Amino acid sequence: MINDEIRAKEVRLIGADSEQHGIVPIREALQMAADANLDLVNVAPTAKPPVCRIMDYGKYRYEMQKKEKEARKNQKIVEIKEVRFSATIDEHDFQTKLRNVLKFLNEGDKVKCSVRFRGREITHASIGQKVLERVAAEAESICNVERRPKLEGRSMIMILSPKA
């Protein structure tokens, strides 16, 4: 809240050059801000009494937006990539999909490995579990198993995350 939007009777005032003015009535604080051609900004509304600062609000908002933009630019968004295997996967197909798993892990993404059981394959869920455990064993040097293979409906799912 800025200037006339502040509803408190008195505020703890911080001047434009960060000096403390103590607790002053809101009218006096607004007058001091107007004399300096600046805004009165409520920086701690929950305090008793609220803390207000005399500053250029437009410049303050611009600086905050710049900081937020910089923080967003530096953060790494971890995505979950999915690689689907089948219970009856052949060796070459397995190696190709394993290469994709390793690529995703090296890029810093989590990988969801799943085996989809079709028809009566569900009765041999242990075959799908062996496929997923083999993936985990092949990639163990660069990943941690975040979630062990677990049957969910007609799929068995395992989640791998890159080592820090």
Automatic annotation (TrEMBL):
<protein>
    <recommendedName>
        <fullName>Translation initiation factor IF-3</fullName>
    </recommendedName>
</protein>
<dbReference type="InterPro" id="IPR019814">
    <property type="entry name" value="Translation_initiation_fac_3_N"/>
</dbReference>
<dbReference type="GO" id="GO:0043022">
    <property type="term" value="F:ribosome binding"/>
</dbReference>
<comment type="function">
    <text>IF-3 binds to the 30S ribosomal subunit and shifts the equilibrium between 70S ribosomes and their 50S and 30S subunits in favor of the free subunits, thus enhancing the availability of 30S subunits on which protein synthesis initiation begins.</text>
</comment>
<dbReference type="Pfam" id="PF00707">
    <property type="entry name" value="IF3_C"/>
</dbReference>
<dbReference type="Pfam" id="PF05198">
    <property type="entry name" value="IF3_N"/>
</dbReference>
<dbReference type="InterPro" id="IPR036787">
    <property type="entry name" value="T_IF-3_N_sf"/>
</dbReference>
<dbReference type="InterPro" id="IPR019815">
    <property type="entry name" value="Translation_initiation_fac_3_C"/>
</dbReference>
<feature type="domain" description="Translation initiation factor 3 N-terminal">
    <location>
        <begin position="2"/>
        <end position="71"/>
    </location>
</feature>
<dbReference type="GO" id="GO:0016020">
    <property type="term" value="C:membrane"/>
</dbReference>
<dbReference type="InterPro" id="IPR001288">
    <property type="entry name" value="Translation_initiation_fac_3"/>
</dbReference>
<dbReference type="GO" id="GO:0032790">
    <property type="term" value="P:ribosome disassembly"/>
</dbReference>
<comment type="similarity">
    <text>Belongs to the IF-3 family.</text>
</comment>
<comment type="subunit">
    <text>Monomer.</text>
</comment>
<feature type="domain" description="Translation initiation factor 3 C-terminal">
    <location>
        <begin position="78"/>
        <end position="163"/>
    </location>
</feature>
<dbReference type="InterPro" id="IPR036788">
    <property type="entry name" value="T_IF-3_C_sf"/>
</dbReference>
<keyword id="KW-0648">Protein biosynthesis</keyword>
<dbReference type="GO" id="GO:0003743">
    <property type="term" value="F:translation initiation factor activity"/>
</dbReference>
<keyword id="KW-0396">Initiation factor</keyword>
<keyword id="KW-0963">Cytoplasm</keyword>
<dbReference type="GO" id="GO:0005829">
    <property type="term" value="C:cytosol"/>
</dbReference>
<dbReference type="InterPro" id="IPR019813">
    <property type="entry name" value="Translation_initiation_fac3_CS"/>
</dbReference>
